[in-house]
Specification:
Number of domains: 1
Mean pLDDT: 85
Radius of gyration: 32 Å
CATH topology: Rossmann fold
CATH class: Alpha Beta
Strand content: 15-25%
CATH superfamily: Alpha/Beta hydrolase fold, catalytic domain
Helix content: 25-40%
Distance between the termini: 126 Å
CATH architecture: 3-Layer(aba) Sandwich
Order of helices and strands: HHEEEEEHEHEHEHHHEHEHE
């Protein structure tokens, strides 16, 4: 006989599924936190971009490939120096020699230009210095003129100034006692740094400095939204180094009032105000200063060593 088919068991009735209700206040909090996190990350990104690119507020380089035929009629040598690891020179400069037996043919000015344009913009000043009868070596920082094309900043420019000093004192065998840094614009800060690093420097000339630049950065509208004093590092300080530097200084101001750093500079110093252009007063100020603080050259060292023959004369 066939066994009877068992009747299916009835499953107990399941309670209806409960729908979880999300508290709208939690949802609003999550949206708010996400929104403010995005804003905070965007703000940090903005601060980082400013930190990396702040040099553009104060440095305005022009990269060129051509060199002038002369320095306002004076011949010069185009010098490539400071090689990197691949032996490629990173810096380009101009050696403008004094005429033999001229007044300061035993002395060399290391010209440290400002932050705008290229060395070509300094030709009038270089010509005026050459007319004193003194050797002049001027160069472009990396990122400027014919020097290597990299992003300029304060640290790189400090290294470039030191490289120029080393080139003159080693390759050209110029005695440190006959080498005077001449800084203009931000180059004034670099010149003061050189004098502080090398106690053998006999004198220092600063012309129309453009330094201690935090106030300049504050005038940029973008700076009002960031902690500028914490992020700003392209300051090119001058007041503090000058206050502790006892190297003789010629401080030239071309404004109606002297630079603030000049007021607190330590002695010995000579301050000259050229509120209106005066080539005569400018030349007299330089010659009086050099006559007082630059020693006469020994007979064995009247003219610096010529550049290597591989350089390009102009």
């Amino acid at each position: 006989m066939a066994s009877p088919t068992p009747k299916p068991r009835k499953r107990p009735a399941q309670p209806p599924a409960q729908v979880e209700i999300v508290d709208p206040r939690w949802l609003l909090k999550a949206i708010g936190i996400t929104f403010f996190a995005a804003i905070f990350c965007a703000y940090l990104t903005f601060c980082y971009l400013f930190y990396q690119g702040q040099w553009q507020l104060i440095l305005h380089p022009v990269h060129t490939t051509a060199a002038p035929q002369s320095i306002a009629g004076a011949p010069y040598e185009l010098i490539h120096f400071s090689p990197d690891e691949s032996a490629t020179p990173q810096l380009a400069g101009w050696w403008i020699p004094a005429a033999p037996n001229s007044r300061y043919s035993h002395t060399t000015l290391l010209f440290l230009p400002g932050s705008d344009g290229s060395l070509t913009d300094s030709i009038p000043t270089l010509a005026a210095l050459h007319n004193l009868g003194i050797n002049v070596f001027a160069f472009d920082y990396r990122g400027y003129g014919q020097s290597a094309s990299i992003r300029p900043n304060q640290i790189n420019m400090l290294h470039d100034a030191e490289a120029a000093w080393q080139y003159l004192t080693t390759t050209r065998d110029i005695p440190a006692q006959q080498l005077v840094p001449y800084g203009t614009g931000v180059g004034a800060s670099l010149a003061a740094h050189l004098a502080d690093a090398h106690s053998t420097i006999p004198a220092l000339i600063l012309d129309s400095p453009h330094t201690d630049l935090l106030d300049v950065a504050r005038r940029d509208p973008r700076s009002r939204y960031i902690p500028l004093s914490l992020l700003f590092h392209e300051n090119f300080p001058l007041a503090q180094p000058l206050s502790a530097l006892h190297t003789p200084k010629l401080l030239i101001s071309r404004a109606s009032s002297p630079n603030k750093a000049f007021l607190t500079a330590s002695d010995p110093k000579v301050t000259v105000e050229l509120a209106s252009p005066s080539k005569t007063l400018y030349a007299q100020s330089l010659t009086h200063f050099l006559d007082e603080y630059i020693p006469s050259a020994p007979a064995s060292q009247l003219v610096p060593t010529p550049a290597p023959s591989t350089q390009n004369p102009h």
